[in-house]
């Protein structure tokens, strides 16, 4: 940005897609800093230092903003988790450990925002609830085939078992977040859970 633009207070021009991406990143930053309950059109406008009119040009309603923000927060972690799992196709324990480390290494705010999505704290948004269900299906699609192949399980059993393990992991992550156990202790406990369940 040139000195003249900075002094005039004018925003640097961004095309529509780049501006929307920037707003989604600002919304994610807001959620990761203060939680889902604070995200609305005015809060985003204030946080991004833009007008509410500009926010409404990109997001026609709050549900749209919530869904786009949730998708943004989730997808990067999903891709990293998928890579971790694919790197350990032959060993469930190692796959769980690798994917667990991805989640444990997230910044605290991002991890908290993801936990709130997974746990279903949708704050009355039907659109966010639908997205949460799609997120659950995406997570299950990463793990269920590995469990079915390794343990020759029916899909229904594998889905139930995987989801129980996902919730157990996020519970341990919360304990790490709150300083109750170390990262390594949490992963050791997860190893025990996986071994006991399987």
From TrEMBL:
Gene3D superfamilies per the UniProt record, alphabetical: Tetracycline Repressor, domain 2 (1.10.357.10)
SUPFAM superfamilies (UniProt xref): Homeodomain-like
Stretches that traverse the bilayer: none
Source taxon at top rank: Bacteria
Keywords: DNA-binding
Chain residues forming the annotated DNA-binding region: 40-59
InterPro entries (alphabetical): Homeodomain-like_sf (IPR009057), HTH_TetR (IPR001647)
Extent of the signal sequence: none
HTH tetR-type domain sequence ranges: 17-77
Name the record gives this protein: HTH tetR-type domain-containing protein
Naturally occurring in which organism (per UniProt): Limnobacter litoralis
Upper taxonomic lineage: Bacteria, Pseudomonadati, Pseudomonadota, Betaproteobacteria, Burkholderiales
């Amino acid at each position: 940005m040139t000195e003249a633009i900075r002094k005039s207070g004018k925003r640097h021009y961004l095309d529509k897609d780049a501006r929307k991406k920037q707003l989604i990143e600002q919304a994610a930053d807001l959620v990761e800093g203060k939680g889902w309950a604070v995200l609305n059109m005015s809060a985003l406008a204030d946080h991004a230092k833009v007008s509410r009119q500009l926010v409404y040009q990109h997001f026609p309603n709050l549900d749209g903003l919530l869904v786009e923000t949730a998708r943004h927060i989730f997808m990067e972690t999903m891709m990293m988790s998928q890579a971790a799992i694919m790197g350990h196709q032959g060993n469930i324990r190692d796959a769980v450990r690798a994917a667990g480390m991805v989640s444990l290494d997230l910044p605290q705010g991002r991890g908290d925002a993801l936990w709130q999505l997974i746990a279903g704290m949708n704050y009355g948004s039907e659109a966010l609830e639908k997205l949460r269900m799609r997120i659950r299906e995406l997570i299950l699609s990463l793990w269920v085939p590995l469990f079915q192949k390794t343990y020759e399980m029916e899909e229904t059993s594998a889905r139930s078992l995987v989801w129980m393990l996902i919730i157990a992991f996020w519970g341990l992550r919360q304990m790490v977040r709150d300083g109750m156990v170390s990262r390594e202790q949490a992963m050791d406990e997860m190893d025990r859970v996986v071994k006991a369940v399987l």
